[in-house]
Amino acid sequence: MASKDLKKGHVSLHLLSDTDNQTANETLIKILAEKATRKILLLLQEKPKTISEISKESKFSANLIYSKIRVLENLNLLYVSGNDINKDWKKKFHYQSKIKSFDLRFENGKIDLKIIYNKIAQKKKNTEKM
After folding, report:
1. What pLDDT, on a 0 to 100 scale, did the predictor assign at position 73?
2. Residue 11: which CATH number?
3. Is the full-model pTM beyond 0.70?
4. Each residue's pLDDT tens digit, 53-89
């Protein structure tokens, strides 16, 4: 079960005895623990980038970046901030991280994962509500 605190800009996820919730939360923690995922989120915090730019800067393959981007987009941890068309008439999307950081705590038998959103994502959330 997730509880949101928009004023503080974070989401808390608590592992419950319910197997489905526990599995979903463990999956999210596992994804955030991956080296490639953390590198992508770091590269996308300040400025939007394309998959090829991320690949070049991270030294990870474009295929790996693409698959991680899809996962992060489905988890609502990044968004498409724009796009352009290259010289071969292919559309290139620019991605940006919605999160600034995350904090994982284990206390009283529960795991608390707090996601701190970056300023750009908070502005985007407020715009989407209008």
Report:
1. 92
2. 1.10.10.10
3. yes
4. 999 999 999 999 999 999 999 988 998 988 888 788 8
Domain range enclosing 103: 2-129
Name which of 81, 41, 71, 82 is nearest 58 in CA terms: 41
Q: Which two tokens stand for residue 105?
A: 């705590």
Length of the chain: 130
- With CA atoms as reference, report the closest residue to 115 among 82, 75, 64, 65: 75
How many domains does the structure of the chain reveal? 1
Find the helix or strand (DSSP H, E) in which 37 lies: helix 35-43
Question: What residues are paired with 99 via a beta bridge?
Answer: 117
Task: Name all contacts of 54-57 with Cβ < 8 Å and 24+ positions apart.
Answer: 54/95
In the chain, at which residue ranges do the beta strands (DSSP E only) sit? 2-5, 10-14, 78-85, 91-97, 99-107, 110-117
φ, ψ of residue 98 in degrees (nearest 5): -90, -15
Per-residue pLDDT at 94:
95
